[in-house]
Amino acid sequence: MIKVDNLSKSYGSIEAVKSLSFEINDGEIVGFLGANGAGKSTTLKVMTGFLRPTSGNVYVDDLNILDHEREIQKRIGYLPELNPLYVDMKVFDLLKFHATIRGMTDKQFKTALERVVHDCGLSGVIHRTVGDCSKGFKQRIGLAVAMIHDPEILILDEPVTGLDPNQIVEIRQLIKQLGKEKLVIMSSHILQEIQATVDKIIIINNGELVAEGSSEELIASAQGLAQLTLEIQDADENAIQEMKAFIPSLSIHTLESSEKSSFVTLEYANTSDPRKEIFDYAVKNQWSILEMSQSKTNLEDVFRSLTQKGDQGNA
Ligand SMILES: Nc1ncnc2c1ncn2[C@@H]1O[C@H](COP(=O)(O)OP(=O)(O)OP(=O)(O)O)[C@@H](O)[C@H]1O
Ligand SMILES: [Mg+2]
């Protein structure tokens, strides 16, 4: 179990993380999401003991990071952002090097090597130079480095960013496999990259928690907005804008006009259904509706609305 408790971290006057609290249980794979600069890497660095918190604490089972940094680091495997590896070393030598740093004996290393080569699918590249491996294999090597001491927890900072779509699928499958036995937290600024891998999602924005839950829970808690897109012929733009006065539950999202048609996207809470009122309004204004299509909120919309909050100054 990991518990982040009221964690804040500032760099001088920059408050990167603000009173952040969340818990992750054993056996969970959690996606840690936020836009660029949201504070993901800072949070993960504090969780791994690489940075001291400004205030607050991080607990791993019965230990806390302020008092038991070394002990906690034994329980954690960390894949840093951009996966810095010694590119001139052979994969074998790199893993041996990290095992030595961890104080492992030759015998312990031999067992650990077999385990990580098997778990990370490295048998084909073990005698290759790191720099000659593909980006996907470099991520596997980074994971093997993070796992050489058989930690219970994996903290992965943007593990799939920069990979091609095939490599993303491969690394996702690998992480999912590892997540069967370990607690995994992986960050990303792209929802689709990790949505398929994780059990739970934590979203931060400007260093603060904005949402936490399964994909389904997040969509439900965003009260699911429905969208209706209309293509209307012969519509007067003022009449389109005035529609809100007649149907207050609507927000008129976008408005584009070509020579012949106006395209309007209307948004309303899933709990209401103003379609009949919209249709009546169209008839009253003698609009010809060429197309009317409805779409429900998806997780991407929830993420966008939560992480653009600060920028737009509205919900
Ligand atoms: N060493 C540092 N010194 C000063 N400010 C920093 C430092 N590291 C990060 N920051 C600032 O702290 C904030 C959070 O940065 P952080 O790297 O944690 O975000 P992130 O969510 O990981 O972003 P990204 O998606 O770009 O990796 C940003 O405003 C960043 O500019
Ligand atoms: Mg980062």
Brief summary:
This protein is of the alpha/beta class and 315 residues long.
Describe the 3D structure.
- The protein has two domains: 162 residues, Rossmann fold, CATH 3.40.50.300; 72 residues, ACT domain (Alpha-Beta Plaits, 2-Layer Sandwich).
- With 315 residues, it is of the alpha/beta class.
- The chain is elongated, with a radius of gyration of 25 Å.
- Helix 4 packs across helix 5 and helix 5 runs parallel beside helix 6.
- The strands form three sheets. Strands 6-7-8-3-9-10 form a six-stranded mixed beta sheet, sandwiched between helices. Strands 2-1-4-5 form a four-stranded antiparallel beta sheet, covered by helices on one side. Strands 12-13-11-14 form a four-stranded antiparallel beta sheet, covered by helices on one side.
- The protein is built from twelve helices and 14 strands.
- The longest helix is centred in the middle third of the chain and has 15 residues.
- Bound molecules: adenosine-5'-triphosphate and magnesium ion (MG).
- Magnesium ion binds next to helix 1.
Largest sheet: 6 strands, mixed
- In CATH, the topology of the largest domain is named Rossmann fold
Identify the CATH homologous superfamily of the largest domain: P-loop containing nucleotide triphosphate hydrolases
Total helices: the number is 12
Strand content: 25-35%
Detail the poorly predicted runs.
310-315
By CATH, the architecture of the largest domain is named 3-Layer(aba) Sandwich
What hetero molecules are in the model?
Answer: adenosine-5'-triphosphate, magnesium ion
Q: Distance N terminus to C terminus?
A: 32 Å
What is the residue-mean pLDDT, rounded to a whole number? 89
Radius of gyration: 25 Å
Order of strands across the main sheet: 6-7-8-3-9-10
